[in-house]
Design a protein that fits this description.
Length: about 350
């Protein structure tokens, strides 16, 4: 079922209200339309870093009023116009764009973002979840401290809220090996016909299920290494697991679709924000056989810095250009998160 509740931008007619609507600017957000994020503390629309519309606060497995749940998305869209945007949690979000007449609001989500646990087997200094995990490092697989995802997933399917034909299962956390539900979740998604996974993990533990999905070309596997040596890895992640991580990458790089493995370099001020480390990282990626690398700026830094008032460190532009040059020279695919691209274009590459 697909619905469109908003008036067309170019609606015809001559009544005062129609004339007003015709000239009003409407916005649209593809994340709001397509994404459902199941976080440890709430179920919400997006993972933009901004608190967008929330479907359920403090979710702990309670019974959900599904009519109310559905209504939240439509009400959020109703606020996306120049008159009401002040009252919208989406105000000022960089994902907003002008609405086109071809945009339709869908009753189904096309991407489910699963991130309902906070335990992790390392302790990155830039971790946004650290406040919730209290910095504890756990190595054993365990249940989420917040809720089980499987019953929620089954209910979402029952309520016809997930697009069966085109669903991407986006699973993100620290290391999925510390989540007991990881493999059962993958199995359930496969049973429901999902063909497209996007899995983010710190890669400390090798997962044969990921290798199998890579061989079948069903997963995009993403990890952040951020450096090229054991000492710096330890400083950044607070565990001595550099060698294991590199060994696991080499195993995934031997899969049939190794182009679907991509490795991030997250720039952390005063740690890895120098050209030498970037060069060593790119050389290591070439040696392992990784073909896609991501340049990212520490999201925690971006969340807590008003870039209109406090500019990014001046040398970040040089680092970005160096990264880009090395990718070109080595024929590596340079990928970006939408937010990084936005920040680079708006703040890093702007003329001074
Ligand atoms: S506009 Fe921004 S905050 Fe609102 S749903 Fe979209 S991505 Fe999330
Ligand atoms: S791997 Fe992810 S969840 Fe774990 S400490 Fe690092 S940033 Fe946090």
């Amino acid at each position: 079922m697909v619905e469109c509740l908003l008036p067309k931008q170019n609606a015809v007619g001559s009544s005062p209200i129609t004339r007003f609507l015709r000239h009003m600017k409407y916005y649209f957000c593809d994340e709001l339309n397509n994404v459902l994020s199941c976080f440890h503390d709430r179920i919400m629309s997006c993972c933009s870093g901004q608190i967008g519309p929330v479907y359920y606060e403090a979710y702990r497995g309670q019974k959900i009023d599904w009519d109310k749940f559905r209504e939240i998305k439509y009400k959020a869209f109703e606020l996306l116009n120049e008159k009401d945007i002040e009252n919208s949690p989406c105000k000022n979000c960089f994902f907003l764009r002008e609405r086109k007449d071809t945009d339709v609001i869908s009753s189904k989500f096309k991407l489910i973002n699963v991130s309902h646990w906070t335990q992790c087997n390392c302790g990155c200094i830039y971790c946004a979840r650290m406040l919730d995990s209290k910095g504890e490092i756990s190595h054993k697989a365990q249940k989420s401290q917040y809720y089980d995802f499987l019953p929620l997933l089954k209910e979402l399917y029952k309520q016809e809220l997930l697009d069966r034909e085109n669903l991407t299962a986006f699973i993100q956390g620290g290391d999925i090996s510390v989540l007991k539900e990881f493999e059962p979740m993958v199995k359930e998604f496969l049973k429901q016909g999902v063909k497209d996974f996007y899995i983010l993990s710190n890669n400390i533990k090798y997962q044969s299920v990921i290798k199998k999905l890579l061989d079948k070309n069903m997963v995009h596997y993403v990890t952040a290494l951020d450096c090229a040596n054991r000492e710096l890895y330890y400083k950044l992640k607070r565990v001595d697991k550099f060698n294991e991580t590199v060994k696991n990458l080499r195993r995934y790089a031997r899969s049939k679709h190794k182009d679907k493995v991509h490795v991030k370099y997250i720039i952390i001020e005063h740690f890895n924000d120098n050209k030498k480390e970037i060069t060593d990282f790119i050389n290591l990626m070439c040696d392992i056989g990784i073909s896609a690398v991501e340049f990212m700026i520490d999201n925690k830094y971006l969340l807590f810095t008003d870039l209109d008032k406090t500019p990014l460190p001046a040398h970040y532009k040089e680092l970005y250009l160096h990264f880009e040059k090395l990718c070109k020279e080595n024929n590596l695919n340079m990928v970006f998160w939408d937010k990084t691209r936005y920040v680079i274009e708006k703040y890093l590459l702007k003329e001074t």
